[in-house]
Amino acid sequence: MLYVCPTPIGNLEDITLRVLRVLQEVDLILAEDTRRTGQLLRHFQIARPVESLHEHNEREKTERILDRLQQGQNIALVSDAGTPGISDPGGFLIRAVIEAGLPLEVLPGANAALLGFLQSGLLSPGFLFFGFLPSRRAERLRELEKLKGLTYPIIFYEAPHRLQSMLADVLAVFGDRRASISRELTKKFEETKRGTLSELLGFFAERKPRGEFVVTVAGAEEEAEDKNEDDILLALQRLLAAGLSRKSAVNQVSEEYRLPKNYVYDLALRLTVED
C-alpha cells in the first residue's frame, strides 16, 4: 500500500493520530526533504527508513518504488508540509501507482489552501485552487487572462520574492477585486490581510513579504454583485441614447466598471426589454 500522508504546515499539533500510526508502521517513508522530515520524525520518536522523493528524482525512482509495492511493502509519501501532490512532489508517483493497479490510500490532513480560503471570508459553494502561477510574467499574464472570467474565488500560492509582481499582474488583469492574503498559517507569526488588490499591493510595498503565502481573489461575478445595478443600467441607457450600439455600450461599461461583459450584456438586454 502507498499511503499519502499530509504533514503539518506549521504547528506540529496538526498531525493526525492516523498519520502518526502509519508512519510508525510502514517499511519506508518517502520525503521531499529528508532533513526536514527527519525533524518531524524525531519529534514524534518515529524511527523508520527514509528516502528522498522530490521533483528532480521522482520519475527515475518511481519504477523502483512500484517494485517494492508489488513485493508487498507498505510505503508512506510525505512532503515538507501539507498534502503531497498538491503543489508539491508526489503527483507522478500517485498516478503511476493507480495506473499499475496497486493499492493507494490518501489520508486527510493539513492543507494551506483551504485554511487560506476560509480565512479570506470570500466564501462560496465553489472555488478554484490554482496553486502557483508561472514565474515568467508573460506566461503568468496568459494564465490570468484565462481565469479572469471565473465567477467564484480563486486560490493561489505564492513565494515571498514574487508576491508583489504577482499581485500587480492580478490587479492589471482582474481589476481591483477583493482579496485576502494569508501567510505563515498555523505558525507563530500567522497573519491574514484583507482588502482590495490595490490596498494589499500597497501594504506589501511598504513591508517586505516574509513567509509562504495563500492568496484568495474574489470571482468576477462576486464583484459584479457588489456594483450598484442602477448605476450600471443608467450608464448603459446614456450610451445607448447617445447612439452607441449595444455591443459598444456593453464594452465601454464593462471596461469602466471592470465587470464581465456577459454580466453587463444581460443587463443591457433587460434594459432593452423594459424600454
Write a concise keyword list for the protein shown above:
12 helices; five-stranded mixed β-sheet; alpha/beta; elongated; 275 residues
Q: Could you describe the 3D structure shown?
A:
- Helix 2 (34-43) links the parallel strand 2 (28-31) and strand 3.
- Helices cover 47% and strands 16% of the residues.
- It is elongated, with a radius of gyration of 24 Å.
- The termini are far apart.
- The mean pLDDT is 92.
- The longest helix has 14 residues, at 261-274.
- Strands 3-2-4-1-5 form a five-stranded parallel β-sheet, with helices on both faces. A five-stranded mixed β-sheet has the order 6-7-10-8-9.
- Helix 3 (58-70) runs parallel beside helix 4 (91-99) and helix 6 crosses helix 7 (163-174).
- 32% of the residues are buried.
- With 275 residues, it is α/β, with parallel strands linked by helices.
